[in-house]
Amino acid sequence: MKYRIKLADGTTQLIQITTDLYKSWKVWKVQFADGKAAMLFKSGNEWLQRNEDILDNYLLTTIGKCIDEVILGKNRLAL
Length: 79
What we know:
It is built from one helix and five strands; from the N terminus they run βββββα.
């Protein structure tokens, strides 16, 4: 699915988020409009990224919150 996120400079950016499994971990692949991609995963309450990905902390946290809201929203609809 495609989502808009607000960046630190106040602009918005369109990203595509898909889920996948890597070994036993649920991961989220985030693809940006410019073709860059990052793979995120959650450990406890903290969002992490692969070592190869270079998202800054603000962007990582913002995308993590977006994913949390999407998941929480889907869980609320399922109840």
